[in-house]
Design a protein that fits this description.
By secondary structure, the protein is of the alpha/beta class. The chain has one domain: NAD(P)-binding Rossmann-like Domain (Rossmann fold, 3-Layer(aba) Sandwich), CATH 3.40.50.720. The strands form 4 sheets. Strands 2-1-3-4-5-8 form a 6-stranded parallel sheet, sandwiched between helices. The chain has a two-stranded parallel sheet with strand order 6-11. The longest helix is centred in the first third of the chain and has 22 residues. The structure holds NADP nicotinamide-adenine-dinucleotide phosphate. NADP nicotinamide-adenine-dinucleotide phosphate binds next to strand 4. The site of NADP nicotinamide-adenine-dinucleotide phosphate (NAP) has 25 residues, from strand 4. Keywords: NADP. This is SDR family oxidoreductase. It comes from Geodermatophilus sabuli.
Amino acid sequence: MRIAVVGATGLVGTPTVSALQHGGHVVVPVTRSTGVDLSTGEGLDAALDGVDTVVDVTNTVAADPTEAESFFATATGNLLAAEERAGVRHHVVVSIVGLDRIRGNGHYHGKRRQEAMVERGPVPWTIQRATQFFELPAMVVGWTAAQGAAPIPPLLVQPVAVHDVAAVLAEVAAGPPQGRTRDLAGPEAHDFVDMARRILTARGDRTRLVPSWRDGPFGVEAAGEVLLPEPTARLGSTTFDSWLAGQ
Ligand SMILES: NC(=O)c1ccc[n+]([C@@H]2O[C@H](COP(=O)([O-])OP(=O)(O)OC[C@H]3O[C@@H](n4cnc5c(N)ncnc54)[C@H](OP(=O)(O)O)[C@@H]3O)[C@@H](O)[C@H]2O)c1
C-alpha cells in the first residue's frame, strides 16, 4: 500500500515510518521539512496523489487552548479536504487516553477538536488513543524547570514506548477503518515523578523535582486513575526499565 505519514519526522512518526517500510509499504513522509504545511495546505495535493491511507501523527508546541485548537482544527480540516480530493480510503490518527477527562490542558483541548473533526469527516477513519509516552516526564521537566527546580504533577500513568505505538499504528494503517479502537498502553503503571527522577538520574541531571499540581500541564483533575487506560486496553510489551536501559 501507499501510506502517507503526516508528522513523519516526529517522536512517534519516525518509528511509524520504519514499521510501515518494514511491512513492505511505500511510505510518503509529510512534514514541513518535505515541503508540506498542514496549516496552509501547501503541498498537500501533490503529496497525497495515489495514497491509500494517511496516518496523522502531527503535533504542535502550542500549550494555550485557543492556539492548540486553532492548529488542530486548521491542520485537520486541510488534511481531510485534501484526502477527499485524492480519494484516500482510510484516515488514521493517534490520540490520547483520557482525553475527555482532562479539561485544563490546552493540548488536550486541541486534540478533542481533532477527534471530533475526524469522526464527522468525509474519510473513513480510525482513532487510536495511546497513553503517555516514556519521553513525557523529561519533556514536562523541560517545560517547567527554572533555577534548578522543576514542578511536576504526581500523576499515576501507564506509559507506553513510541515503538509499540508505531507498531500498532502500522498494523491499523494496513487494515480497514475501525472507528474507535481499544486504548493502547504500556505493560505497567508508574508514578510520573519517579519516572522523571529516574530519567534525570540516568542523564546526570541534578534538577530538583517538586511534586505539584500547579505551574505545569496537569492540574489536580488528573489525580487518581484519570489517565489510566480502560481495563480492556491493548498493552505494548516494552517496559519502562528496558526503555530506560536503552537510553
Ligand atoms: N507525548 C505523549 O505522551 C503522547 C501520548 C499520546 C498521544 N500523543 C500524540 O502523538 C502525536 C505526535 O506527537 P509527537 O510527540 O510524536 O510529535 P512531535 O515529535 O512534536 O512531531 C510532530 C511532527 O509534526 C510535524 N508538523 C508539525 N507542524 C506541522 C505542519 N504545520 N505541517 C506539517 N507537519 C507538521 C513535524 O514536522 P515539521 O516540524 O518538519 O513540520 C513533526 O514531524 C500528537 O498529536 C500527540 O497528541 C502524544
